[in-house]
Amino acid sequence: MQTTEINGFQIEHFNQHDLPVGKPEGICPVCSEHRKPENKKAKCASYDWERGLGTCHHCSNTFQLHTYQRKGNAEKIYIKPEPIQPKEVSTKVQQWFQSRGISNDTLKALKVTEGKEFMPQTGKEENAIHFNYFMGDELINVKYRDGRKNFKLYKGAEKVFYNINAIVGYEYCVIVEGEMDALSLHEAGIPNVVSVPNGATLGTNNLDYLDNCIDYFTDKEKVILALDGDEAGQALQNEFIRRLGAEVCFIATFDDCKDSNEYLLNMEKKVWRSVLPPPSQFHSKELQPSKTLKMKLQTSLEMVSNLATKWALKILTIFLVLIPVSLLLLLVYLVVASLILLIRWSLVII
To answer: Could you tell me the end-to-end alpha-carbon distance of the chain, in angstroms, rounded to an integer?
Structure first.
């Protein structure tokens, strides 16, 4: 059992939920405390201590058994925000998130807070939602959002993926275009999701945050791109494919929905979970989407075409065509040679 390192990530806090160490099953740190008294101690979750992951068979959530230190160091010196004090957001903010399908438990899990912040768009302090960007246990950046949907990042801070700690240990991860999308997937039972810090643009997409977090993607068998369907989102998608490699990239489409949050609001959470299998089942080479959606919206995961694979198939096709042609030519040669020898023998006898 790994107690200090998993897949190159140094463990910061081993067994963060105080579960029975080494046991293959036990309670779920996500749902057990909310169940009926007679079921609170039910062994509803499986623990994989080698991979550092757990899966609950009651609520279908997955969870990390440990916390991890940051992997890789920043090449530049950045300004860092002041550490935050864990504090629940106000009732008004909770209600707004609930209207978007996001529970208070998800806000706590992804360390969402609120507070006063000067917003340059309005020229004054505003009450703002704080999306806190952590790597390991260190606060790296903060994105602020006020009631008028104005945004800003902490000035001079390093750009990294939002929720980057959550993908450690998983064989695949999902990349989305905004914090609300990341909260939506977590709400639907897909915790191994990260969001880009500054959305997508039609111009050149600066993926410096990918450079700063690249060590987190080296062990991923699949990276699912669940970006917006507009032109800017597609441009960002193409850049990720170019940078990460077409052989590991999958595309999640939302059909008539704009993004992950709208998709969450339009269908049940279990439909989202059916699209992406839990890590314990993620061993096959192909991802197949659910075929039992009861609503008009359907989601498909299509593997990005790999140019090398296409050329390999072309070469194989040509080779398979040439084999029978070569055999036919050889047969004709043997027949002609046999006829010539037969004629020569006949002439010698005569």
So the answer is: 89
